[in-house]
Amino acid sequence: MARDGDINEPTSRFLDSDLHPDDRSDVPPPPPSSGGAARALLWVLGAAALAVVVLLGVQTTGILPEFRNPFSKEQADRSQPALLESMQDLSRYVAAEGNFQVVVDLQNDRRNVPDWLLNQRTLFVGAGSVEAYVDFGTLTEGAIVQSADGKSVEIKLPAPQLAKTNLDLDKSYVFAEERGLLNRVGDLIGGDPNRQQQVYQLAEDRITAAARDSGLAARAEENTRKMLVGLLGSLGFEHVTVTYVAP
Known about the structure:
The chain contains 5 helices and 8 strands. By secondary structure, the chain is of the alpha+beta class. Strands 1, 2, 5, 6 and 7 form a 5-stranded antiparallel β-sheet that branches. The chain has a 3-stranded mixed β-sheet with strand order 3-4-8, covered by helices on one side. It is elongated and about 115 Å long.
């Protein structure tokens, strides 16, 4: 016979295992361990870092090809080889050279048309050089007269000339440029590939004019005279006279 004490015992003494499985559906599962997730994340980061180190090391050794940007800019030079058109022997003595810089302000517009619609203005800084030379190839018979005692010599040379202006494109640049609406539309459609040629030509003309007024030819005369006096003096001539004849 059961005792009253056993009948009146609280239900908290029963074990969970004595409950029916359906009766334990409301029992929440134990919370996951945070330490396991942290260790997994550290393993993933460590593996990624190791993979990067291995790839960099292999690439440094040159075993694998270099990794490049698949969308990087590429340049292909399909120019044809240069063709020799002509050759000529030069007998010029370059006696002086002048370096010049000019600012070209060129504007092309139309009368009675607003600048915002049709206008093209270019500020171009041009740098170039001009050589002054004496052409010894034009010396004729009788241009060099030696004295009877062999101590003096007289030389008649053609006057120095100025060579063609050499525009240095590496030092020349467009400082500013303004274009009207129609000019911009034209550039988008096709543009003018010779648009800068007019500016280049104008810069060369300005430099050539400046060279003529700079005294470069007189400098070439003096330098040529000094060169001949020193050269012929070393050959035993005591008096060297150099005169220039206009071409």
